[in-house]
Write a structure and sequence with these properties.
The protein is an alpha/beta fold and 366 residues long. The chain has two domains: 3-98 and 285-343, Rossmann fold; 100-277, 3-Layer(aba) Sandwich (Rossmann fold). Helix content is 35%, strand content 13%. It contains 15 helices and twelve strands. It has a seven-stranded parallel beta sheet with strand order 8-7-6-9-10-11-12, sandwiched between helices. A five-stranded parallel beta sheet has the order 2-1-3-4-5. Strand 10, helix 11 (239-248) and strand 11 form a beta-alpha-beta unit. The longest helix has 21 residues, at 286-306. The protein is elongated, with a radius of gyration of 23 Å. The protein binds nicotinamide-adenine-dinucleotide.
Length: 366
Amino acid sequence: MPKVLVSDKLSPTAVQIFKDNGVEVDYLPDLGKDKEKFLEAIGQYDGLAIRSASKVTEKIIAAATNLKVIGRAGIGVDNVDIPAATKKGIIVMNTPFGNSITTAEHAIAMMFALARQLPEADASTRASKWEKNRFMGVEVTNKTLGLIGAGNIGSIVADRAVGLKMKVVAYDPFLTPERAQTMGVEKVELDDLLARADFITLHTPLIDATRNILNAETLAKTKKGVRIINCARGGLIDEDALYQALKSGQVAGAALDVFLQEPAENNPLFELPNVICTPHLGASTTEAQENVALQVAEQISAYLMTGEITNALNFPSISAEEAPLLTPGSSSPKPSAPLPASSLKRPLPASRSSSRAVSPNSTPSR
Ligand SMILES: NC(=O)c1ccc[n+]([C@@H]2O[C@H](COP(=O)([O-])OP(=O)(O)OC[C@H]3O[C@@H](n4cnc5c(N)ncnc54)[C@H](O)[C@@H]3O)[C@@H](O)[C@H]2O)c1
Protein backbone atom coordinates (compact mmCIF):
# COMPACT_ATOMS: atom_id res chain seq x y z
CA MET A 1 0.00 0.00 0.00
CA PRO A 2 1.54 3.36 -0.98
CA LYS A 3 2.25 5.73 1.88
CA VAL A 4 1.71 9.48 1.87
CA LEU A 5 2.98 12.13 4.24
CA VAL A 6 0.88 15.23 4.81
CA SER A 7 3.45 17.62 6.28
CA ASP A 8 1.35 20.82 6.39
CA LYS A 9 -2.07 21.59 7.80
CA LEU A 10 -4.69 20.11 5.47
CA SER A 11 -8.42 19.43 5.83
CA PRO A 12 -9.35 16.17 7.63
CA THR A 13 -11.52 15.36 4.59
CA ALA A 14 -8.35 15.19 2.48
CA VAL A 15 -6.87 12.65 4.90
CA GLN A 16 -10.06 10.60 4.61
CA ILE A 17 -9.82 10.74 0.79
CA PHE A 18 -6.37 9.12 0.93
CA LYS A 19 -7.75 6.34 3.17
CA ASP A 20 -10.81 5.82 0.98
CA ASN A 21 -8.53 5.47 -2.04
CA GLY A 22 -6.46 2.77 -0.34
CA VAL A 23 -3.48 5.00 0.46
CA GLU A 24 -1.87 4.89 3.89
CA VAL A 25 -1.48 8.39 5.25
CA ASP A 26 0.50 10.03 8.04
CA TYR A 27 -0.96 13.39 8.97
CA LEU A 28 1.86 15.35 10.63
CA PRO A 29 0.89 18.99 10.00
CA ASP A 30 3.89 20.49 11.86
CA LEU A 31 6.56 18.22 10.42
CA GLY A 32 7.24 20.40 7.38
CA LYS A 33 8.36 23.26 9.61
CA ASP A 34 10.97 21.10 11.36
CA LYS A 35 13.70 20.70 8.74
CA GLU A 36 15.63 17.97 10.56
CA LYS A 37 12.65 15.75 11.37
CA PHE A 38 11.24 16.31 7.87
CA LEU A 39 14.57 15.17 6.40
CA GLU A 40 14.64 12.08 8.64
CA ALA A 41 11.08 11.04 7.83
CA ILE A 42 10.77 11.69 4.09
CA GLY A 43 12.56 8.49 2.98
CA GLN A 44 9.63 6.23 3.90
CA TYR A 45 6.99 7.94 1.76
CA ASP A 46 5.74 7.46 -1.80
CA GLY A 47 3.77 10.71 -1.82
CA LEU A 48 3.97 14.10 -0.14
CA ALA A 49 1.07 16.51 0.27
CA ILE A 50 1.98 20.08 1.25
CA ARG A 51 0.78 23.65 1.33
CA SER A 52 3.30 26.48 1.59
CA ALA A 53 5.01 25.80 4.94
CA SER A 54 6.99 22.68 3.98
CA LYS A 55 10.13 23.59 2.06
CA VAL A 56 10.91 20.75 -0.32
CA THR A 57 14.55 21.57 -0.96
CA GLU A 58 17.15 19.69 -2.97
CA LYS A 59 18.34 18.14 0.30
CA ILE A 60 14.85 16.85 1.16
CA ILE A 61 14.47 15.48 -2.36
CA ALA A 62 17.85 13.74 -2.15
CA ALA A 63 16.67 12.00 1.03
CA ALA A 64 13.30 11.10 -0.50
CA THR A 65 14.37 7.71 -1.80
CA ASN A 66 10.85 6.38 -2.38
CA LEU A 67 9.08 9.58 -3.33
CA LYS A 68 7.11 9.52 -6.57
CA VAL A 69 4.82 12.52 -6.27
CA ILE A 70 4.63 15.88 -4.51
CA GLY A 71 1.23 17.58 -4.46
CA ARG A 72 0.80 21.22 -3.50
CA ALA A 73 -2.70 22.13 -2.28
CA GLY A 74 -2.84 25.51 -4.03
CA ILE A 75 -1.03 27.10 -6.93
CA GLY A 76 2.36 28.50 -5.91
CA VAL A 77 5.18 25.96 -5.88
CA ASP A 78 7.97 28.34 -4.92
CA ASN A 79 8.61 26.03 -1.91
CA VAL A 80 9.44 23.03 -4.12
CA ASP A 81 12.72 22.56 -5.96
CA ILE A 82 11.08 21.39 -9.19
CA PRO A 83 14.33 20.84 -11.18
CA ALA A 84 15.65 18.59 -8.37
CA ALA A 85 12.35 16.67 -8.27
CA THR A 86 12.34 16.31 -12.05
CA LYS A 87 15.90 14.94 -12.02
CA LYS A 88 14.72 12.20 -9.67
CA GLY A 89 11.60 11.44 -11.69
CA ILE A 90 9.26 12.84 -9.06
CA ILE A 91 6.02 14.35 -10.36
CA VAL A 92 5.16 17.79 -8.93
CA MET A 93 1.46 18.67 -9.04
CA ASN A 94 -0.56 21.66 -7.95
CA THR A 95 -4.28 22.42 -7.89
CA PRO A 96 -4.73 25.41 -10.16
CA PHE A 97 -8.53 25.72 -10.10
CA GLY A 98 -9.63 25.15 -6.51
CA ASN A 99 -9.31 28.79 -5.53
CA SER A 100 -10.31 30.61 -8.73
CA ILE A 101 -13.76 31.68 -7.50
CA THR A 102 -12.36 32.82 -4.17
CA THR A 103 -9.66 34.93 -5.83
CA ALA A 104 -12.12 36.41 -8.32
CA GLU A 105 -14.41 37.34 -5.44
CA HIS A 106 -11.49 39.06 -3.70
CA ALA A 107 -10.87 41.16 -6.81
CA ILE A 108 -14.56 42.18 -6.87
CA ALA A 109 -14.43 42.96 -3.14
CA MET A 110 -11.36 45.13 -3.76
CA MET A 111 -13.15 46.95 -6.57
CA PHE A 112 -16.06 47.87 -4.28
CA ALA A 113 -13.68 48.79 -1.44
CA LEU A 114 -11.95 51.20 -3.83
CA ALA A 115 -15.17 52.61 -5.26
CA ARG A 116 -16.48 53.48 -1.79
CA GLN A 117 -13.17 53.91 0.12
CA LEU A 118 -14.40 51.38 2.66
CA PRO A 119 -11.22 50.89 4.74
CA GLU A 120 -10.73 54.64 5.23
CA ALA A 121 -14.41 55.25 5.94
CA ASP A 122 -14.31 52.46 8.50
CA ALA A 123 -11.23 53.91 10.24
CA SER A 124 -12.75 57.41 10.24
CA THR A 125 -16.05 56.21 11.72
CA ARG A 126 -14.28 54.25 14.45
CA ALA A 127 -12.35 57.44 15.23
CA SER A 128 -15.74 59.11 15.90
CA LYS A 129 -15.30 61.52 12.98
CA TRP A 130 -18.54 60.84 11.07
CA GLU A 131 -17.10 62.35 7.85
CA LYS A 132 -20.10 61.93 5.59
CA ASN A 133 -18.86 64.45 3.05
CA ARG A 134 -15.32 63.15 2.83
CA PHE A 135 -16.17 59.77 1.38
CA MET A 136 -17.94 60.52 -1.87
CA GLY A 137 -17.78 57.28 -3.85
CA VAL A 138 -18.45 56.16 -7.42
CA GLU A 139 -20.88 53.56 -8.76
CA VAL A 140 -19.62 50.59 -10.73
CA THR A 141 -22.82 50.26 -12.78
CA ASN A 142 -22.21 51.23 -16.43
CA LYS A 143 -18.50 51.68 -15.75
CA THR A 144 -15.88 49.98 -17.91
CA LEU A 145 -13.79 47.25 -16.33
CA GLY A 146 -10.48 46.56 -18.08
CA LEU A 147 -9.52 42.93 -17.61
CA ILE A 148 -5.86 42.13 -18.24
CA GLY A 149 -5.78 38.33 -18.48
CA ALA A 150 -8.98 36.40 -19.15
CA GLY A 151 -8.12 32.91 -17.91
CA ASN A 152 -9.65 30.98 -15.01
CA ILE A 153 -9.87 33.87 -12.56
CA GLY A 154 -10.24 36.68 -15.09
CA SER A 155 -13.21 34.97 -16.71
CA ILE A 156 -14.98 34.61 -13.35
CA VAL A 157 -14.31 38.28 -12.57
CA ALA A 158 -15.75 39.18 -15.98
CA ASP A 159 -18.85 37.09 -15.29
CA ARG A 160 -19.43 38.84 -11.95
CA ALA A 161 -18.75 42.28 -13.45
CA VAL A 162 -21.23 41.70 -16.27
CA GLY A 163 -23.74 40.78 -13.55
CA LEU A 164 -22.99 44.13 -11.94
CA LYS A 165 -23.93 45.83 -15.23
CA MET A 166 -20.36 46.78 -16.04
CA LYS A 167 -18.96 46.89 -19.56
CA VAL A 168 -15.96 44.55 -19.65
CA VAL A 169 -13.08 45.01 -22.10
CA ALA A 170 -10.40 42.32 -22.04
CA TYR A 171 -6.78 42.27 -23.12
CA ASP A 172 -5.43 38.74 -23.44
CA PRO A 173 -3.44 37.67 -26.53
CA PHE A 174 -4.76 34.11 -26.16
CA LEU A 175 -8.43 35.01 -25.88
CA THR A 176 -10.33 33.96 -29.00
CA PRO A 177 -13.12 36.17 -30.35
CA GLU A 178 -15.57 33.27 -29.80
CA ARG A 179 -14.59 32.89 -26.17
CA ALA A 180 -14.79 36.68 -25.67
CA GLN A 181 -18.30 36.61 -27.08
CA THR A 182 -19.34 33.74 -24.78
CA MET A 183 -17.92 35.65 -21.81
CA GLY A 184 -19.81 38.79 -22.80
CA VAL A 185 -16.62 40.85 -23.01
CA GLU A 186 -15.06 42.93 -25.77
CA LYS A 187 -11.57 41.78 -26.77
CA VAL A 188 -9.31 44.81 -27.15
CA GLU A 189 -5.66 45.75 -27.45
CA LEU A 190 -3.87 46.95 -24.33
CA ASP A 191 -3.77 50.63 -25.36
CA ASP A 192 -7.50 50.60 -26.02
CA LEU A 193 -8.16 49.06 -22.61
CA LEU A 194 -5.93 51.65 -20.92
CA ALA A 195 -7.75 54.51 -22.63
CA ARG A 196 -11.25 53.25 -21.82
CA ALA A 197 -11.20 51.52 -18.43
CA ASP A 198 -12.57 53.12 -15.25
CA PHE A 199 -11.27 50.13 -13.29
CA ILE A 200 -8.39 47.86 -14.35
CA THR A 201 -7.95 44.40 -12.83
CA LEU A 202 -4.96 42.14 -13.46
CA HIS A 203 -5.25 38.36 -13.85
CA THR A 204 -2.18 37.16 -15.73
CA PRO A 205 0.76 35.04 -14.64
CA LEU A 206 4.01 36.85 -13.94
CA ILE A 207 6.10 36.15 -17.04
CA ASP A 208 8.46 38.31 -19.11
CA ALA A 209 5.59 39.60 -21.25
CA THR A 210 3.56 40.71 -18.23
CA ARG A 211 6.25 41.95 -15.83
CA ASN A 212 5.55 45.65 -15.16
CA ILE A 213 2.72 45.58 -17.67
CA LEU A 214 1.48 48.62 -15.77
CA ASN A 215 4.48 50.95 -15.76
CA ALA A 216 5.09 54.71 -16.12
CA GLU A 217 4.40 54.56 -19.86
CA THR A 218 1.22 52.46 -19.72
CA LEU A 219 -0.13 54.25 -16.63
CA ALA A 220 0.22 57.53 -18.54
CA LYS A 221 -2.15 56.10 -21.16
CA THR A 222 -4.91 55.35 -18.65
CA LYS A 223 -8.06 57.40 -18.19
CA LYS A 224 -7.37 60.02 -15.51
CA GLY A 225 -8.84 58.79 -12.22
CA VAL A 226 -8.66 55.09 -13.09
CA ARG A 227 -8.76 52.60 -10.19
CA ILE A 228 -6.46 49.57 -10.30
CA ILE A 229 -6.80 46.14 -8.69
CA ASN A 230 -4.07 43.53 -8.50
CA CYS A 231 -4.97 40.15 -7.02
CA ALA A 232 -2.64 38.24 -9.36
CA ARG A 233 1.10 38.63 -8.77
CA GLY A 234 3.41 41.34 -7.45
CA GLY A 235 5.68 42.41 -10.30
CA LEU A 236 2.84 42.99 -12.76
CA ILE A 237 2.82 46.63 -11.68
CA ASP A 238 5.89 48.85 -11.43
CA GLU A 239 5.32 49.97 -7.84
CA ASP A 240 7.41 53.18 -8.17
CA ALA A 241 5.43 54.23 -11.23
CA LEU A 242 2.15 53.41 -9.45
CA TYR A 243 3.24 55.49 -6.45
CA GLN A 244 3.85 58.50 -8.72
CA ALA A 245 0.57 58.00 -10.58
CA LEU A 246 -1.37 57.78 -7.30
CA LYS A 247 0.33 60.94 -6.01
CA SER A 248 -0.46 62.87 -9.19
CA GLY A 249 -4.10 61.71 -9.30
CA GLN A 250 -3.67 59.98 -12.66
CA VAL A 251 -4.67 56.86 -10.72
CA ALA A 252 -7.44 57.58 -8.18
CA GLY A 253 -6.88 54.44 -6.15
CA ALA A 254 -5.22 51.03 -6.12
CA ALA A 255 -6.19 47.85 -4.29
CA LEU A 256 -3.33 45.42 -3.96
CA ASP A 257 -3.32 41.87 -2.65
CA VAL A 258 0.15 41.11 -4.02
CA PHE A 259 3.47 42.93 -3.91
CA LEU A 260 6.89 42.82 -5.48
CA GLN A 261 8.40 41.91 -2.10
CA GLU A 262 6.33 39.61 0.11
CA PRO A 263 5.72 39.70 2.98
CA ALA A 264 5.29 43.42 2.22
CA GLU A 265 6.36 45.29 5.32
CA ASN A 266 7.89 48.64 4.45
CA ASN A 267 6.32 49.35 1.10
CA PRO A 268 6.18 53.10 0.26
CA LEU A 269 2.67 52.54 -1.16
CA PHE A 270 1.47 52.05 2.44
CA GLU A 271 1.89 55.83 2.99
CA LEU A 272 -0.79 56.68 0.47
CA PRO A 273 -4.41 57.04 1.62
CA ASN A 274 -5.79 55.95 -1.75
CA VAL A 275 -4.19 52.50 -1.56
CA ILE A 276 -5.95 49.45 -0.09
CA CYS A 277 -3.75 46.51 0.85
CA THR A 278 -4.37 42.91 1.85
CA PRO A 279 -1.67 40.32 2.67
CA HIS A 280 -1.99 37.95 -0.32
CA LEU A 281 -5.46 36.85 0.78
CA GLY A 282 -6.73 36.02 -2.70
CA ALA A 283 -7.10 32.30 -2.02
CA SER A 284 -7.97 32.58 1.67
CA THR A 285 -11.48 31.27 2.16
CA THR A 286 -12.55 28.12 3.92
CA GLU A 287 -14.14 26.90 0.68
CA ALA A 288 -10.99 27.38 -1.39
CA GLN A 289 -8.72 25.75 1.20
CA GLU A 290 -11.08 22.78 1.37
CA ASN A 291 -11.29 22.54 -2.45
CA VAL A 292 -7.53 22.51 -2.96
CA ALA A 293 -6.98 20.01 -0.14
CA LEU A 294 -9.53 17.57 -1.57
CA GLN A 295 -8.20 18.05 -5.07
CA VAL A 296 -4.59 17.36 -4.09
CA ALA A 297 -5.60 14.23 -2.15
CA GLU A 298 -7.51 12.92 -5.18
CA GLN A 299 -4.64 13.73 -7.57
CA ILE A 300 -1.92 12.13 -5.43
CA SER A 301 -4.07 9.04 -4.78
CA ALA A 302 -4.87 8.71 -8.48
CA TYR A 303 -1.18 8.85 -9.41
CA LEU A 304 -0.09 6.36 -6.77
CA MET A 305 -2.94 3.92 -7.40
CA THR A 306 -3.38 4.15 -11.20
CA GLY A 307 -0.56 6.28 -12.63
CA GLU A 308 -3.00 8.98 -13.72
CA ILE A 309 -1.31 12.38 -13.84
CA THR A 310 -3.30 15.60 -13.48
CA ASN A 311 -2.06 19.17 -13.10
CA ALA A 312 1.62 18.20 -13.07
CA LEU A 313 4.06 21.03 -13.54
CA ASN A 314 6.88 18.83 -14.84
CA PHE A 315 4.97 16.27 -16.92
CA PRO A 316 2.00 16.22 -19.30
CA SER A 317 -1.33 14.87 -18.07
CA ILE A 318 -1.86 11.14 -18.48
CA SER A 319 -5.14 9.33 -18.02
CA ALA A 320 -5.49 6.19 -15.90
CA GLU A 321 -5.94 4.19 -19.16
CA GLU A 322 -2.73 5.53 -20.72
CA ALA A 323 -0.64 5.18 -17.58
CA PRO A 324 0.06 1.40 -17.76
CA LEU A 325 1.40 1.81 -21.30
CA LEU A 326 3.91 4.39 -20.09
CA THR A 327 5.05 2.81 -16.85
CA PRO A 328 8.42 1.27 -17.68
CA GLY A 329 8.80 -2.50 -17.26
CA SER A 330 5.49 -3.03 -15.52
CA SER A 331 2.21 -4.54 -16.56
CA SER A 332 0.70 -3.09 -13.40
CA PRO A 333 -0.92 0.30 -13.68
CA LYS A 334 0.61 1.33 -10.37
CA PRO A 335 3.67 3.59 -10.55
CA SER A 336 5.74 1.09 -8.57
CA ALA A 337 8.85 3.06 -9.45
CA PRO A 338 9.14 6.75 -10.17
CA LEU A 339 8.91 7.62 -13.84
CA PRO A 340 12.44 7.89 -15.24
CA ALA A 341 13.89 11.37 -15.10
CA SER A 342 14.55 11.15 -18.85
CA SER A 343 10.84 10.87 -19.51
CA LEU A 344 10.23 13.92 -17.36
CA LYS A 345 12.54 15.89 -19.61
CA ARG A 346 10.13 15.47 -22.51
CA PRO A 347 9.00 18.91 -23.65
CA LEU A 348 5.59 19.77 -22.32
CA PRO A 349 2.83 20.35 -24.84
CA ALA A 350 2.35 24.04 -25.59
CA SER A 351 -0.84 24.29 -23.59
CA ARG A 352 0.95 23.24 -20.41
CA SER A 353 4.41 24.64 -20.83
CA SER A 354 3.60 28.06 -19.40
CA SER A 355 2.29 28.69 -15.93
CA ARG A 356 -1.16 28.00 -17.32
CA ALA A 357 -2.40 24.53 -16.62
CA VAL A 358 -5.16 24.55 -19.21
CA SER A 359 -6.03 26.45 -22.29
CA PRO A 360 -6.89 29.97 -21.18
CA ASN A 361 -10.14 29.68 -23.00
CA SER A 362 -11.38 26.52 -21.42
CA THR A 363 -14.15 26.58 -18.88
CA PRO A 364 -12.75 26.66 -15.39
CA SER A 365 -13.22 23.40 -13.54
CA ARG A 366 -14.61 24.20 -10.13
N1 LIG B 1 -3.90 36.52 -4.90
C1 LIG B 1 -3.91 35.21 -4.80
O1 LIG B 1 -3.92 34.65 -3.71
C2 LIG B 1 -3.99 34.37 -6.05
C3 LIG B 1 -4.71 33.17 -6.02
C4 LIG B 1 -4.79 32.43 -7.19
C5 LIG B 1 -4.14 32.86 -8.34
N2 LIG B 1 -3.43 34.02 -8.32
C6 LIG B 1 -2.77 34.51 -9.54
O2 LIG B 1 -3.78 34.98 -10.43
C7 LIG B 1 -3.26 34.98 -11.75
C8 LIG B 1 -4.28 34.40 -12.71
O3 LIG B 1 -4.53 33.04 -12.37
P1 LIG B 1 -5.46 32.13 -13.31
O4 LIG B 1 -5.70 30.87 -12.58
O5 LIG B 1 -6.58 32.91 -13.84
O6 LIG B 1 -4.43 31.85 -14.48
P2 LIG B 1 -4.78 31.40 -15.99
O7 LIG B 1 -3.54 30.79 -16.50
O8 LIG B 1 -6.05 30.63 -16.03
O9 LIG B 1 -5.05 32.79 -16.73
C9 LIG B 1 -4.04 33.69 -17.04
C10 LIG B 1 -4.45 34.40 -18.30
O10 LIG B 1 -3.43 35.36 -18.61
C11 LIG B 1 -3.33 35.38 -20.02
N3 LIG B 1 -2.07 35.97 -20.46
C12 LIG B 1 -0.89 35.36 -20.66
N4 LIG B 1 0.02 36.25 -21.11
C13 LIG B 1 -0.62 37.43 -21.18
C14 LIG B 1 -0.23 38.74 -21.59
N5 LIG B 1 1.02 38.99 -22.01
N6 LIG B 1 -1.14 39.73 -21.53
C15 LIG B 1 -2.41 39.49 -21.12
N7 LIG B 1 -2.85 38.27 -20.76
C16 LIG B 1 -1.95 37.26 -20.78
C17 LIG B 1 -3.45 33.92 -20.42
O11 LIG B 1 -3.78 33.80 -21.79
C18 LIG B 1 -4.55 33.46 -19.50
O12 LIG B 1 -5.81 33.59 -20.12
C19 LIG B 1 -1.95 34.19 -11.68
O13 LIG B 1 -0.88 35.11 -11.63
C20 LIG B 1 -2.05 33.46 -10.36
O14 LIG B 1 -0.79 33.15 -9.84
C21 LIG B 1 -3.35 34.79 -7.21
